[in-house]
Amino acid sequence: MALIDIANALAEHCRNGTEAEGLNTLYAEDAVSVEAMSQAGGPDTFTGLEAIRGKHAYWDSAMEVLSMDVGGPYPHQSDKFALTFKGTARVKETGEDFPMDEVAIYTVADGKIVREEFFYSM
Predict the structure, then answer these.
(1) Rounded CA separation 108/88 (Å)
(2) Are 56 and 35 in contact (CB under 8 A)?
(3) How far is CA 34 from CA 40, 44, 47, 48, 95, in A?
(4) Residue 72: what pLDDT?
(5) What is the number of H-type helices and E-type strands within the chain?
(6) Which of 8, 47, 115, 119 has its CA 20 to 30 A from that of 37?
């Protein structure tokens, strides 16, 4: 797949709530995901598709997305693109709502996403 096709497909999965399918079809088995900070005392870097799936499972178990606008994709050269995420989420345990404003940079090699990096306000 071409970079823009991968970027558009991931953006659609994020908009449609089908991120798990996007992980299965668009990511390399050895992909790396880097968060701006650790979550709940856990790591900030997740290596391998299974670890990234685990990160998603944790998020889904702990948070509820109330609204989310996905911007982009914004291609950069031949191997990167960005998506933006802006919305509101809720901590399931406390019921506390919080704003989300995030930029994600994705690196593609050999037709698969090999790295994602998240930047967000604290």
Answers:
(1) 28
(2) no
(3) 15, 6, 9, 11, 26
(4) 98
(5) 3, 6
(6) 8
Six token digits for residue 109: 């090699």
Q: Rounded to an integer, what distance in angstroms lies between the CA atom of residue 20 and that of residue 29?
A: 14
Pair 114, 106: CB distance under 8 Å? no
DSSP code string of 46-103: EESHHHHHHHHHHHHHHEEEEEEEEEEEEEETTTEEEEEEEEEEEETTT--EEEEEEE
Average pLDDT over residues 25-42: 90
Count the alpha carbons within 13 Å of 4 in the hemisphere toward its beta carbon.
Answer: 1
Provide the residue type at 69 as one letter: D
Asked whether 97 and 88 are in contact (CB, 8 A), the reply is yes
Least confident range of 12-16, 35-39, 56-60: 35-39
Is the model's pTM score more than 0.85? yes
